[in-house]
Fold this sequence. Notes:
The complex is a heterodimer. By secondary structure, chain A is α+β, with helices and mostly antiparallel strands. Chain A is 24% helix and 35% strand. Chain A has helices at residues 44-52, 94-104, 109-122, 138-150, 168-185, 196-202, 220-225, 230-235, and strands at 4-15, 18-29, 33-37, 59-64, 67-68, 79-82, 156-160, 188-193, 205-210, 213-218, 240-246, 251-254, 257-260, 270-276, 281-284, 292-301, 306-311, 316-321, 330-335, 341-344. The longest helix of chain A has 18 residues, at 168-185. Chain A starts with a strand and ends in a 6-residue tail after the last strand. By secondary structure, chain B is mostly helical. Chain B is built from 11 helices and no strands. Chain B has a single domain, classed as MetI-like fold (Orthogonal Bundle), CATH 1.10.3720.10. Classes of the chains: A alpha+beta, B mainly alpha. The A-B interface holds A 52-54, 73-76, 79-81, 83-92, 100-101, 104-105, 148-149, 152 and B 154-157, 159-167, 170, 175, 178-179, 181.
Amino acid sequence: MGKVLIELKNLTKRYGDMTAVDHINLTIRENEFVTLLGPSGCGKTTTLRMIGGFEEPDEGEIYFEGKLLNNVPPYKRNINTVFQRYALFTHLNVFENVAFGLRIKKVPKHEIEQRVKRMLKMVDLEGFEKRYVDSLSGGQQQRVAIARALVNEPKVLLLDEPLGALDLKLRKEMQIELLDMQRRVGITFIYVTHDQEEALTMSDTVVVMNKGVIQQVGTPQDIYNEPINRFVADFIGESNIIEATMPEDFKVAFDGVVLDCVDKGFEPNEPVDIVIRPEDIRIVTNPDEGMIKGTVTSVVFKGVHYEMLIQSDYREYMVHRTMMFPVGSVVGMNIQPADIQVMKRGEAIE
Amino acid sequence: MMKVAKKIYMGLLYLFLYAPIIVLIVFSFNESKSRGHWGGFTLKWYAELFRDRQIREALYYTLLVAVLSTVISTIVGTLAALGIHNMSKLGRTVVLNINNLPVLNPDIVTGVALMTLFISMGLELGLVTMLIAHVVFSIPYVILSVLPKLRQLNKHTAEAALDLGATPSYALRKVILPEIMPGIVSGALMAFTLSIDDFVISFFTAGTEATNLSILIYSMAKRGVKPTINALSTLMFITIVVLMLIINKKSDKGENLLL
Lengths: 350, 259
């Protein structure tokens, strides 16, 4: 774990009656790839803009390397941003766009030349120096925006939905490239997205937000495998969320069955929510060999797997399997104890 | 058949529209003083034009007012557009409607109103009042010309400049103004054209001391049309056409939606 670089303490932003960001606390370390993830309006972009200095917090503090950052204007912060839809300077060519920050800092001419060239090489845009940004494709503009920010050698790069305007294939390529770049330049990336897959692919740490409140902070694995509440489970990937109780440690009861699990520490018979991922439900053809019995009601081919809906006496389960079970067949379903994630009852942290 | 009819119709329409100007231009080269018949080709009216001290003075006033009012209204209008662009939606709608009113207002009303205002303020009508009047009626056009460029701008452009270390004033000078420059230039051209073109408002606000070309032509025409007027009018017409061509060429590139 690297040194602490940025600390948010009770950070709050209100617009009129609406609280966009509600007393959040977060620690970001050197070299970390942190993703703020959530639906639109969850406060992720506002948080990023407060770190960048484009919004003033109503309450709370932002510390950068231990120093209070609240009253430092954006042009004096050692932080650079890749904006939504890039916000490139259309009256300048690629070279001048990238050189913009260095010219302001009065870096000597030959050094500007070298650094811009090196940066354009890194983002794979050699030979594009004289081109105007309007003549570039979305992916190329994206690279110019990244080069324009990184050439200033900031300690932190903020990225606000940087891949939002690209098509799916290009987006996947750029995800890998961005990750690769972050490893090479070795600086902290704070990345905002509403795309859960993007967040899981790229991040060291995912911060899931909803309605201005942080729901969960963790590694992609933590967030996916051990969601803390219904909201996180629902937002990250597909899931079967079931209301259950815990009669004792390591047991959950629902729909007339009691299954083993690996969670403990709840009150006896405490109501909980459990999450079972669709790929963690195994199907057996003999219904009597399964923990739960059900009838297949729908089958959709998804490429790597079949997505099946299986109706039990109590509810419908979504199941992902590579083997197909025809509609109408009665099957049994089995779930391993480790694949049941028990959460405190409740929609989300308000 | 239909095609031919269409073409004839078009031809007649344009002939009707442009006949007066064509006649004017033709007669500016007429040797004979009479308007009725053609006495041979000459450039003497043009030569006379430039010998006439009164006309030279009027030309000087016209250009002086046009240049000054263009500079002032472009600066004021651009700053106003920047302000309007950053207003709340409601405020913007209100201000824009107020801005559009003078554009639609008949010139004669604007002219008389300005004259009344100047007199009630105790200002003597002359060059200064005419200049003020020209600035006043040009500003809305500059605003209308700059605003679309601001709207086209990515809303994070200014922030991107600050992010890269630019102070707010540096960001304005080196990023925002260059980005909206096409709009500013067409606004300026528009202001210049309107100023040269204007008669009604100038007539009411110039008083007797500062006579520009359009007022001079009007007063000359009252005393009987001399062929020099034809020559002068031809020159003014050509100037306006050239300016309009430049403005349209700029808007062809999709840079301006005005007109």
